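User: Can you predict the 3D structure for this chain?
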Amino acid sequence: MTFNQPQTLKTIAEIIGARIIGDENFPVLGTNEIHRVKNGEIVFVNHPKYYDKALNSAASIVLIDKEVACPEGKALLVSEDPFRDFNKINTHFTRIYNFTEQLHDFEVGEGTKIHPSAVIGNDVKIGSNCIIFPNVVIGDRTTIGDNVIIQSGTVLGGDAFYYRKLNGNFDRLISVGNVIIEDHVEIGNNCTIDRGVTDSTIIGEGSILDNLIQIGHDTVIGKKVLIASLVAIAGCCIIEDEVTVWGQVGIASGNRVGKGAVLLGKTGVNKDLEGGKTYFGQLAEEFRDYLRKEVKLKNL
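Assistant: Here is the predicted structure, written as structure tokens:
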């Protein structure tokens, strides 16, 4: 999430009651989740296992639950509960509507057709010559390009599935990101595309999605990607251009699939995959290797 205007470290510290390590005038441009964080942004960490990853990330400010050595060129915000305070920062700078207020602050381009039963949130932008079918839900801050087709029952911009367990209950990390659908995308019936926690979930230009597909928060789908039905892609994945994903594939969080790869039906992806190859299996492997293994097993 990028702030409307840059803030200072002192301002952010006052909002959450945190202690500053570094220059109180240190500029702060926004917040972001660890997989997408950029220079000038805040990332949070609340477990020693991930201290090094956060401190060595692109983040300029680390919201942390313990005083540690501050890397050169960075600053720290020390908080007793970084998860809670990350939510507090995000909701301070982003208004949460959740369809509770009928403000309907959205833009629609020329030639776009929207069925009356569609539900549209606030700060939404829809391009030209789009078709929005019945019972589509478009959440706050969603951006849709030109010549996009969204079929019935699809939800764009649901909350991220991102929780911690606290005192025996689940505590949500509040989603203040958005969804971006680029030009010439087609999305089938009853798909669910979650908005980013603090950044954008992106469906690239010319990509085609079948029915009943789940795409998690902050995932980036490249250009001209073809995804068949019943695919589930977890958060923070990167699917590069011209990948083909056949039915019932599952992709675990934070993985990358290289350009032009083909994932055959029911493949499970738990690691990064190189582009230009075909994969299959419960734990994805090159299809040729899988076939060789099957032949060997049958010949035992």
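Helices lie at 9-16, 51-55, 82-93, 287-298. The chain has two domains: 2-93, 106-291.
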